[in-house]
Amino acid sequence: MASPVYADLVRPASPPLARVFDAAVIAGFSLLIALSAQVAIPLPFTPVPVTLQTLAIILTGCLLGSGRGALAAAAYVAEGSLGLPFFSGGTGGIAHLLGPTGGYLVGCVAAAYVAGLCAEQGLTRKQAGLLLTLCAADLVVYVPGLAWLSIFTGAARAAALGFLPFVIGDALKIAAAWSFLMAAAMITSRARERSA
Fold first, then answer.
1. Structural domain of residue 14, as residue ranges?
2. What is the domain-level CATH number for residue 54?
3. Could you tell me if residue 1 is inside a domain?
4. Can you tell me whether residue 115 is helix, strand or coil?
5. In this structure, is residue 75 part of a structural domain?
6. Is 67 a domain residue?
7. Which of 15, 17, 81, 111 could form a disulfide with 137 if both were Cys (CB 3.0 to 4.6 A apart)?
8. pLDDT digits (tens, 9 = 90+) for 47-79
């Protein structure tokens, strides 16, 4: 049986209200991901910018679970692909999905799913499990990202352009997500103790 994720703690028990809640959190988190993508630093030597998008993606998965997390990430990709200015730098359009960074966008959906699945399995309840979950979800973004980027740059250059420049930033984003989720766990634990 799946462990409840944070969204489940406040999800209404009534099925009609639960469906409305699910739709609202999926839409809301797709907007959070879009906002995080606007914090972008273009690098002159690579088509891949530094953004806060991966931070939002891994938090989305951990907070919403695999299904809602992946749907929120997929909604973000769909909204941006349809032309809404949701991708880095306030851009949008299908060209981003088909361009050099398209694999990373696909990887975002998979990463949210993986983070959510780990949370549902209870792996995020302990500090080490949470850290492993965040690292794994972050790396999942790179699998389709580097594969797709290599079509444009060649396999030999893909890691140099699409992975290595982002290692330090990803470590900082993982640390931020870990800190946020550990604080959320402490607050939730204290609230449960008070209500018991």
1. 6-195
2. 1.10.1760.20
3. no
4. helix
5. yes
6. yes
7. 111
8. 999 999 999 999 999 999 999 999 999 999 999
CB atoms within 10 A of CB 12: 12
What's the rounded Cα separation, in Å, for the pair 28 and 152?
33
Closest CA to 170 of 126, 140, 125: 140
- pLDDT for the residue numbered 189: 84
124 to 62, 67, 88, 131, 174: CA distances (angstroms): 8, 17, 29, 8, 13
Residues 6+ apart with CB under 8 A from 171: none
- Total number of domains in the chain: 1
The mean predicted confidence, pLDDT, of the chain is: 95
- Long-range own/partner contacts, residues 75-83 (CB < 8 A, 24 or more apart): 75/26, 75/27, 75/30, 76/30, 76/33, 76/34, 76/37, 76/108, 77/105, 77/106, 77/108, 77/109, 79/30, 79/34, 80/34, 80/105
Q: Is the pLDDT of residue 1 over 80?
A: no
Indicate the DSSP class of residue 88: G
Do residues 134 and 182 lie in contact, with contact meaning Cβ atoms separated by under 8 Å? no
Mean pLDDT for the stretch of residues 26-49:
95
Closest CA to 145 of 131, 165, 129: 165
Strands 40-41 and 50-51 turn out to be antiparallel
From 139, 179, 174, select the one nearest 159 (Cα to Cα): 139
Beta bridge partners of 50: 41
Task: Assign residue 154 a region (left: φ > 0; alpha: ψ between -120 and 50; beta: otherwise).
Answer: left
For residue 65, report the phi and psi dihedrals to the nearest 5 degrees: 95, 175
